């Protein structure tokens, strides 16, 4: 956020660490010892986490799995949900194209990078309001989102950001869907993605191998009403994502470390410390890595939104139009650039679980490695020419994917984005490499 317009900005809250079962490294000094990773990489403060029970899928979820893998639902007859959300890659794309090509002829570019579907069931509904640091539920909506002083956002200073107003929750990069059932309809009917229609989907679910089972579960209403049967099919897709443990395994090396069963290597330990250090990575300010008071494993997101000023990705055809901008949260509704102008340029903070298996990062897929992402975090305002193009006047076109009038929404207050030209970066090259080593411990097995 711009320091010049602090009193006019919405703010992104920070989940309180005082209510967590164990502290992050910089808060970990306890009266009887420390919860910092031990010198051998072990966890001196293991925790017991509440994980989803592994049990057979319900009949509705099994139908949802068939629907998830059914390409005949698409306009082309060639794309299923699994085409983009690959089960073998943690329900995310395995390729390095910034956006997916879909449509009837499979030749239309999507607008944004495809997020993973893992851990999506933990997202609260979209809302804007005071952040409740003890709950994953959506904050209460407040009428006036301006006029509040923004406190700094860090992994350790919950008091400074306790009064912050936050856009939070919702699915997609802009939070425009609240439930998995709603989310399914987005790519299904998008002309640049699965390019289907309600009529085509109804025709398919009425004449598919799973039709008899679906109609049986839908009851009399499902047999009499095609629209009701369609709603039941979307419900089945949601049940599949909720019930199948492959969408939320919580079995990474980091989970084993939390439970005291595994140890970090020296570089993983260094990366964990830098990840949590509010003066270095400060990553845990947004990507919460602690176990909550209800013993739920961390999903490495606070479910909130940030404006980071990612460079414009010219591999996306729409970006060749200088008048076109994708502004995230404020584009989630037709009047958003007016009513939600304080959030223009903000996009969802994704989970970092399985991030080491991704090949595109940020909402527009502009980066293709964790190294590029960490360099951007450390050097965005110190070496902008590394990330942004030069104009005809040879000047670096900094923040070139957000209009001037919304640049006050950019995060320039919180580390590592609080560095000014001529200052040292918050993270050294070695610390960035260590953080990447730590991020690799978040990959599900």
TrEMBL record:
GO terms for molecular function: peroxidase activity. Its main location: other. Residues 59-209, 266-443 form the Cytochrome c domain. InterPro entries: Cyt_c-like_dom, Cyt_c-like_dom_sf, Cytochrome_c_Peroxidase/MauG, Di-haem_cyt_c_peroxidsae. Pfam families: CCP_MauG. SUPFAM superfamilies: Cytochrome c. The keyword Heme applies. Residues 1-28 form the signal peptide. It is found in: Cell envelope. This is Cytochrome-c peroxidase. It comes from Acetobacter sicerae.
């Amino acid at each position: 956020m711009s320091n010049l317009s602090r009193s006019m900005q919405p703010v992104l809250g920070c989940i309180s660490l005082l209510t967590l079962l164990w502290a992050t490294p910089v808060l970990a000094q306890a009266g009887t010892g420390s919860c910092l990773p031990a010198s051998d990489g072990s966890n001196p403060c293991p925790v017991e986490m509440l994980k989803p029970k592994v049990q057979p899928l319900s009949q509705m979820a099994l139908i949802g799995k068939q629907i998830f893998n059914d390409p005949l639902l698409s306009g082309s007859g060639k794309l299923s949900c699994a085409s983009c959300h690959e089960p073998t890659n943690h329900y995310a794309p395995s390729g390095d194209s910034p956006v997916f090509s879909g449509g009837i002829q499979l030749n239309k570019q999507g607008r944004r990078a495809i997020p993973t579907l893992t851990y999506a069931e933990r997202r609260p509904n979209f809302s804007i309001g005071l952040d409740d640091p003890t709950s994953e539920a959506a904050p209460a909506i407040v009428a006036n989102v301006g006029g509040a002083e923004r406190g700094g956002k860090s992994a350790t200073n919950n008091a400074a950001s306790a009064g912050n107003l936050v856009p939070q929750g919702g699915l997609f990069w802009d939070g425009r869907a609240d439930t998995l059932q709603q989310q399914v309809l987005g790519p299904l009917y998008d002309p640049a993605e699965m390019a289907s229609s309600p009529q085509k989907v109804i025709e398919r679910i009425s004449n598919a191998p799973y039709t008899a089972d679906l109609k049986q579960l839908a009851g009399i209403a499902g047999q009499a009403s095609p629209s009701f049967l369609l709603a039941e099919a979307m419900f089945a897709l949601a049940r599949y994502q909720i019930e199948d443990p492959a969408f939320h395994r919580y079995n990474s090396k980091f989970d084993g470390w939390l439970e005291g069963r595994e140890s970090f290597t020296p570089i993983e330990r260094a990366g964990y410390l830098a990840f949590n250090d509010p003066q270095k990575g400060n990553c845990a300010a947004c990507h919460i890595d602690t176990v909550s008071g209800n013993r739920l494993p961390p999903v490495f997101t606070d479910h909130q939104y940030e404006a980071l000023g990612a460079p414009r990705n010219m591999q996306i055809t729409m970006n060749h139009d200088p008048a076109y901008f994708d502004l995230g949260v404020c584009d989630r509704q037709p009047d958003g650039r007016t009513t939600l102008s304080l959030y223009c340029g903000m996009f969802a903070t994704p989970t970092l679980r399985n991030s080491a298996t991704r090949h595109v990062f940020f909402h527009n897929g502009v980066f293709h490695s964790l190294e590029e992402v960490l360099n951007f975090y450390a050097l965005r305002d110190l070496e902008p020419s590394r990330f942004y193009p030069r104009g005809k006047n040879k000047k670096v076109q900094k923040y070139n994917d957000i209009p001037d009038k919304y640049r006050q929404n950019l995060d320039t207050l919180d580390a590592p984005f609080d560095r000014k030209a001529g200052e040292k970066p918050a993270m050294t090259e070695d610390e960035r490499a260590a953080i990447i080593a730590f991020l690799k411990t978040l990959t599900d097995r």
